[in-house]
């Protein structure tokens, strides 16, 4: 493929060499389709490489539709049922990649996420897939019963076009709004996008109250809009992060009420009463420091209630304070946005796609898979599973 030459003719052109694009290319290639995978970055699978702290949390054994956010919560079910976490584990095992379960069904490579990219590239090579990196698609038009692509490496004609260009998160890794623009060009609706799985920022007095506690970490239960996640909280210079916050951030919008249960494993009132009986002369802040990180305990006392010897508190006062500890309000001002977000919420409207094939209902031969679709997973390997499953669904028919 080089500029100025006759158009390259393929059965399937796939735009985007990330998790979904690589898997779809493999599956279509194994069916004997001539597949061209187009990636505009200098290498494929950059997000896989950086994922899971370099060890790629490649799936979650507990995957179900409840782990995904979408305007249509049922849309993801068909693809997830037909290419399951067990199917991907079998592929990983076939390549001799050692893995372990970290917690809650989250599977990681023992060694490196590079192994997952290597595996997918080896699979693509075995399936005869042609991979072009540093190649940008300039224009896409419908042509005969297929598609004509103008790329920086020449013209391409394809019977089927699969858009696997991902979302907007981490622009420095090659994220673009290309897939959304292409969907609109072909008349598909795109649901509003925003950053998901992102740290939240605090501002004004809310930031002043906590910024010097940067580095403090503790288990919490974060609650917002009827959702709750029990996991770690990390206080940062700019706001709050950690798995509990990343998870709840996908359900939070500015102005929403965000509450943290700072003692998710205890009944706070019982714990304070027991301390009052055992240590009546101890000050509240020392008692609290037995239950929470010391610096945070001190700050909570400053913000909520003067620190006195425990015997001086009436039961009703302790009950009010305990209730505050279990529903601590945090007024976030915003999210860190796409710069650090792990996913993009929203995207190509699932109403426009077949849930069993990912094909456009109106434009035969046009498919959307992976993160560009309005299906976003929780933290914990679900987003890659969606990439594998949706890619498999399209790869089996494109
Ligand atoms: P993805 O973004 O992977 O790939 C899209 C590809 O298309 C990119 O290679 C991009 O360069 C290319 N592209 C874009 N526009 C193009 C154009 N116009 N022309 C050609 N190519 C174009 N999930 C999970 O399950 N477990 C985990 O451990 C993590 N960890 C994690 C860490 C970090 C830091 C991030 C940012 C994200 C994660 N995720 C994750 C989320 C996961 O990475 C994400 O959901 C998948 O990569 C989505 O796969 P896609 O193939 O849809 O998009």
Automatic annotation (TrEMBL):
Originating organism: Metallibacterium scheffleri
Flavoprotein among keywords: yes
Necessary cofactors: FAD
Name of the protein in its database record: Aminoacetone oxidase family FAD-binding enzyme
All copies of domain RsdA/BaiN/AoA(So)-like insert, residue ranges: 194-343
Domain RsdA/BaiN/AoA(So)-like Rossmann fold-like: 11-396
UniProt cross-references to InterPro entries, sorted A to Z: BaiN-like, BaiN-like_dom_sf, FAD/NAD-bd_sf, RsdA/BaiN/AoA(So)-like_dom, RsdA/BaiN/AoA(So)_Rossmann
Lineage top rank: taxon: Bacteria
PANTHER family per record: OS12G0638800 PROTEIN (PTHR42887)
Keywords (A to Z) from UniProt: FAD, Flavoprotein
Pfam families cross-referenced by the UniProt entry: HI0933_like, HI0933_like_1st
């Amino acid at each position: 493929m080089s500029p100025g030459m006759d158009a390259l003719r393929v059965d399937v052109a796939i735009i985007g060499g990330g998790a979904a694009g690589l898997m779809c290319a493999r599956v279509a290639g194994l069916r004997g389709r001539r597949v061209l995978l187009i990636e505009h970055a200098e290498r494929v699978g950059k997000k896989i490489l950086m994922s899971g702290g370099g060890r790629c949390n490649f799936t979650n054994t507990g995957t179900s539709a409840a782990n995904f956010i979408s305007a249509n919560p049922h849309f993801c079910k068909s693809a997830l049922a037909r290419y399951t976490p067990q199917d991907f584990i079998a592929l990983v095992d076939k390549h001799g990649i050692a893995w372990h379960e970290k917690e809650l069904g989250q599977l990681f490579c023992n060694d490196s996420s590079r192994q997952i990219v290597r595996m997918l590239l080896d699979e693509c090579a075995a399936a005869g897939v042609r991979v072009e990196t540093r190649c940008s698609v300039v224009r896409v038009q419908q042509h005969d019963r297929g598609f004509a692509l103008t790329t920086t490496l020449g013209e391409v004609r394809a019977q089927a076009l699969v858009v696997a260009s991902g979302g907007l998160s981490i622009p420095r890794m090659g994220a673009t709004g290309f897939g959304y623009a292409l969907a609109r060009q072909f008349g598909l609706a795109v649901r509003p996008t925003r950053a998901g799985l992102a740290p939240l920022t605090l501002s004004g007095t809310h930031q002043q109250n906590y910024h010097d506690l940067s580095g403090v970490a503790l288990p919490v239960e974060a609650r917002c809009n009827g959702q709750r996640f029990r996991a770690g909280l990390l206080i940062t210079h700019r706001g709050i992060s950690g798995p509990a916050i990343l998870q709840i951030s996908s359900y939070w919008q500015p102005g929403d009420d965000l509450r943290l249960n700072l003692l998710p494993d205890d009944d706070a009132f019982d714990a304070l009463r027991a301390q009052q009986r055992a240590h009546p002369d101890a000050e509240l802040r020392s008692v609290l420091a037995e239950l929470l990180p010391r610096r945070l305990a001190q700050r909570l006392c400053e913000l909520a209630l003067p620190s006195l010897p425990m015997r001086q508190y009436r039961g009703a006062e302790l009950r009010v304070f305990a209730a505050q500890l279990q529903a601590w309000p945090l007024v976030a001002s915003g999210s860190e946005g796409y710069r650090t977000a792990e996913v993009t919420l929203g995207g190509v409207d699932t109403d426009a796609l077949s849930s069993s094939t990912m094909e456009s209902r109106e434009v035969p031969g046009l498919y959307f898979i992976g993160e560009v679709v309005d299906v976003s997973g929780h933290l914990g390997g679900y987003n890659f599973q969606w990439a594998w499953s949706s890619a498999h669904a399209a790869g089996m028919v494109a």
